[in-house]
Amino acid sequence: MLTPEQNIRKVTHLPTLFEYAGFVHLSTGCLIGPYLEFADYKNWIEFTGPYADMPRGDFSTLLPALTRLIQGFVCMAIYLTVLLVLNIDIYWAGHEDFITYKTFFHRVGYFWLAMTG
Questions:
Q1: More confident residue, 109 or 116
Q2: Which sequence spans correspond to the domains of the chain?
Q3: Is 14 exposed, middle or buried (0-12, 13-18, 19+ CB in 10 A)?
Q4: Which of 35, 39, 58, 59 is nearest to 48 (CA)?
Q5: Are 53 and 60 in contact (CB under 8 A)?
Q6: Fewest Cβ atoms closer than 10 Å to its Cβ: which of 7, 45, 73, 96?
Q7: According to the model, what pLDDT value does residue 34 have?
């Protein structure tokens, strides 16, 4: 006999492969395992049950997301340009010449610039 709580959350029909894969690969589920019932997940995706009154997404987040994407590409271009212009090679840090290269702070700066990409 099911409790009232279990009766609400029972799965009455087999989910599709796509629904099940979405549930299994939910971002937090991949880290700590499934922490919510499949019925809750399906209600959340379909905006039904307790999630029926949730605000629907609109495209107000599209512009900030595109802005961040463009900023990322600009930062990557600046980083690659600096590496090419200053002729920085990340593999040179493994040579014996690098140990005697200028001061310790120059070497730390070189590592930071060469390895943060």
A1: 109
A2: 4-51, 59-115
A3: exposed
A4: 39
A5: no
A6: 96
A7: 73
| pLDDT of amino acid 86 | 77
Contact criterion met (CB below 8 Å) for 47 and 56: yes
Q: Report the Cα 98 to chain-centroid distance in Å.
A: 36
CB crowding 45-83: b at 16 or more within 10 Å, else e: eeeeeeeeeeeeeeeeeeeeeeeeeeeeeeeeeeeeeee
pTM: 0.47
Q: How many Å separate Cα 36 from the centre of its chain?
A: 21
Residue 111 or 1, more confident? 1
Q: How confident is the model at residue 90 (pLDDT cuts 50, 70, 90)?
A: low
